[in-house]
Amino acid sequence: MVALQVVHSRATARGVTVALGAADDTAHPAAWQGPVTISAGAAPACVVGDEVAIVEAPVLLGRGILYLPTYSGSNNRVYAVDSRSCRVLWRSGYFNGATSFSGGRLSMGEKSARLDDNCHPVRGMTMAR
Predict the structure, then answer these.
(1) Is the Cα dihedral 90, 118, 38, 27 positive or negative?
(2) Which residues does the chain have with pLDDT short of 70?
(3) Which residue of 11, 24, 56, 89 has the fewest C-beta atoms within 10 A of its own C-beta?
């Protein structure tokens, strides 16, 4: 899992390019309004659904899955998105606080989810349908 370095609302790593839309501040962005557009390898670019908006750092990539932390008001949520299809694979419950990844765990405020070797959430965390 790598944290993507966003420059001018774009980030590229491991053959995946992510465009996050307009930044909240061009000099020191902390969030991007979307829409989120993803290009992966030779696959055509795709656009993530509108539910994934107001993305904040860290944007994480592991095994072709993008983890996109979002917020609306005081509610935060993380979405796991397939980088080739832009399909939402999983979404966290609402939480307050920062998002980080360390030691195989995705921390979301006071909550956390362990990720398996394919970067999917495990133990009671279900994938979106």
Answers:
(1) positive
(2) 123-129
(3) 24
